[in-house]
Amino acid sequence: MLQLVDAEVPTNRQEIEHELLRVRGEIEIRELYFSRLAAALHCVDQSEDVESEQTTVDWIRHNCRLTQQAAADRVRIGEKLPVMPRTENCLYTGEVGIQHLAVMARTAVAVGDAFDEARLLPLAKKHSPGRFYHESLHYRHSLRPKEVADEQADLVESRHLSLSTAEDGCLILQGVLDPVGGAAVRTTLEALARPMGKHDHRTREKRLADAVVEGLTNGGKVNVQMQVTSSLETLLGLLGAPGAETEFSLPVSSKTVERWACDCSITRVLMKDSVVIDVGRAERVIKGPKRRALIARDRYCQWPGCERPASWCDGHHIVHWINGGGLELENMVLLCQRHHWLVHEGGWQIVKSETDGIVPIAPTTLFGMPRGPD
C-alpha cells in the first residue's frame, strides 16, 4: 500500500494558507488527469461490442469511491475539454478549480453546439463554483428555455416527503424539494429561525426545527383533541395521573397539558373506566373582549427582545388558574409558542415587575448534591 509521508505541518497562518493553496493546486491538476482517464475509459466502453451491465460511471463510483455526481462530472470534464481549452489553462494557473470545469462541462452537454466558452469563462473566474452554477443556469435559459423549464418541472414531480414515527414518538422527516419549492420553504423558515430575544442559545438546527412547527401551526394555533383520564390530576401533575393523548403522538406530559389549558383551542374527552363521560367543545380559555384587551395592551410577545405578533401568541396566566390564579387582565401576558413552552415544559418562570415588565428566571441547575454532614 502506498504511504505518503508529509513534511511537518507549518504553524504560521500565512505559511499554512500558502501550503493549502499549493497542495490544492496539485490535487486539481491530478483531478484533471483523472478526468481524462475517465473519459478515455468511457470511450473504450462505448466502442466495445459487448454490452455490460455496469456503466463507466458506476465502475468509477464503486472502484474509485466517488459519488454518482462526482463520477459523472469527471467523465463529462474529460469529454468536453476540447471545447473549453481556455478554461483548462485557467485551472493550471489557479484562476478556476475542477468544480468550475464540472459546471462548464455540464453546461456544454446541456446546450450542445451552442456552447460558447468565452461567455462563461469570465463568470467562472469571478464566482465560486456554487455561484457559477447559478449563473450558468441563466446562460442555459437564454439558449434553451424550454429544456430548463422541463427540467424544473421534472424536479417538482420528483419532490417527496416521508413521515415515520420513532420508538420514542418523535416524528422523522425525510424528503427532497425542488429548487423553487425549497426556496419558498427556506424563505418562510429563515424568517422564523432568527434568534428570538434574550436567552436564545439554540443552535441553528434547533431554531430551524422550531420554525417548521411554528410556521405550519401558525404560531402553535392548532386544535388539539386530548383524551384525559383525570383532567384535574393531570393538570396538577400528581403522581399516578395519566398523560394526555393526541391522535399522532405518544402520551404527553402534564406540563404540556398545562400549557394547552392555559390558552389553546382544546376539545376535551373525559374518560372514566374506559367510558366517555363528557365531550367538550373546542374553545379558547381567553377569548372575546378579554383577549382583545390583552392584544391591545401587549401587541406582541412580551418576552424581552421577542416581537412575535399577537396573532401568533397565546395568553399565558402568570399564576395558572389551576393553582388559584385569577382571570383578570393583570394576571395575563402574551407569549409566543416558544416562550410559552419555556415557561411550562422548559422550567422557566416569569415575574412581572413594575419597572422592567416581564422578567424571565432561568431554571435552577444542580451540578452536584451538597456535601452531607461529616
Q: How many separate domains make up the residues?
A: 4
Q: Mind describing the biggest β-sheet?
A: 3 strands, mixed
- In oligomeric terms, what are we looking at? single chain
Outline the low-pLDDT stretches: 225-231
Total number of beta strands: 9
Mean pLDDT over all positions:
82
Integer-rounded radius of gyration: 31 Å
Order of helices and strands: HHHHHHHHEEHHEHHEEHEEHEE
Helix content: 40-55%
Number of helix segments?
Answer: 14
Strand content range: 5-15%
- Straight-line distance between termini: 63 Å
Q: Which class best fits the helix and strand makeup?
A: alpha+beta
- Overall morphology: elongated
Describe the structure.
The chain has four domains: about 15-155, no CATH class; about 160-215, no CATH class; about 225-280, no CATH class; about 290-360, no CATH class. The chain is about 50% helix and about 15% strand. The chain has helices spanning about 15-45, 55-65, 70-80, 85-95, 100-110, 115-125, 130-145, 145-160, 180-190, 205-215, 230-235, 255-265, 290-300, 335-345; strands spanning about 160-165, 170-175, 225-230, 265-270, 275-280, 315, 330-335, 350-355, 355-360. About 20% of the residues are buried. It is elongated. The protein has about 375 residues and is of the alpha+beta class.
Summarize this structure as a short list of keywords or feature phrases.
alpha+beta; two-stranded antiparallel ribbon; 374 residues; 14 helices; single chain; three-stranded mixed beta sheet
Fold topology:
Blueprint: H1 13-47, H2 56-63, H3 68-80, H4 85-93, H5 98-111, H6 117-126, H7 129-143, H8 145-158, E1 160-165, E2 171-176, H9 179-192, H10 204-216, E3 224-228, H11 231-236, H12 254-263, E4 266-272, E5 275-279, H13 288-298, E6 313-317, E7 332-336, H14 337-344, E8 349-353, E9 357-361
Parallel strand pairs: 3-4
Antiparallel strand pairs: 1-2, 4-5, 6-7, 8-9
Helix pairs in contact: 1-3, 2-3, 3-5, 5-7, 6-7, 7-8, 9-10
